[in-house]
């Protein structure tokens, strides 16, 4: 083939819309209770047709920056325009909006705070990290400091009380360095 027809074919392929995969999916349960998934009903076994939907994109890659945040300002303006006169918008003091993963991390840390089996240092560290996530401190941390934070969390689960105490102190100092 020559170069021109190949580029036309390539352009035609790219111009095609992405295919949607709407194949049926069946959940089959075997005689011993094992579960399998198939594109067709399983013969001789109870089968349930599953409603499979395309994945949604839940990622929120927004991170705070040192400068003013136009998205937060636009959201504030839109919120104030939709509110009755005299009402004030309830935005966080920093204007920082939590990402999906940060909200998940807070939920996990809140579970640690409530666990009666968690060490005192773990509960205190969970409270400290929740506050710093909400202020946007964790989002501004360097990769090296995030690795340190994870290591300190590993030390917080150790049996040795002194090691846990030191890790809690190091974690507090790490967060304080970003204030």
Which features would summarize this protein structure in a list?
179 residues, three-stranded antiparallel sheet, 7% strand, mainly alpha
Secondary-structure map:
Elements: H1 3-15, E1 25-29, E2 35-38, E3 47-50, H2 70-82, H3 100-114, H4 120-134, H5 137-140, H6 143-156, H7 161-176
Antiparallel strand pairs: 1-2, 1-3
Helix pairs in contact: 3-4, 4-7, 6-7
Q: What features would you describe in this structure?
A:
This protein has 179 residues and is mostly helical. The protein has a domain at 93-176. It is built from seven helices and three strands. The protein has a three-stranded antiparallel β-sheet, with no helix packed on it. The longest helix has 16 residues, at 161-176. The protein is elongated, with a radius of gyration of 26 Å.
In short:
This protein has 179 residues and is mainly alpha-helical.
């Amino acid at each position: 083939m020559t170069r021109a027809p190949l580029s036309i074919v390539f352009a035609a392929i790219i111009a095609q819309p992405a295919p949607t995969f709407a194949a049926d999916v069946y959940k089959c349960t075997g005689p011993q209770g094992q579960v399998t998934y198939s594109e067709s009903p399983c013969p001789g076994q109870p089968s349930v047709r599953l409603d499979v939907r395309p994945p949604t994109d839940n990622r929120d890659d927004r991170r705070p920056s040192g400068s003013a945040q136009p998205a937060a300002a636009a959201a504030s303006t839109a919120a104030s325009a939709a509110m009755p006169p005299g009402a004030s918008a309830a935005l966080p003091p920093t204007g920082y909006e939590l990402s999906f993963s940060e909200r998940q991390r807070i939920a996990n840390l809140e579970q640690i705070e409530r666990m009666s089996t968690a060490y005192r240092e773990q509960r205190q560290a969970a409270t400290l990290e929740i506050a710093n996530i909400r202020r946007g401190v964790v989002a501004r941390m360097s990769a090296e400091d995030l690795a340190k934070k994870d290591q300190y969390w590993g030390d917080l689960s150790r049996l040795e009380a002194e090691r846990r105490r030191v890790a809690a102190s190091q974690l507090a100092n790490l967060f304080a360095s970003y204030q």
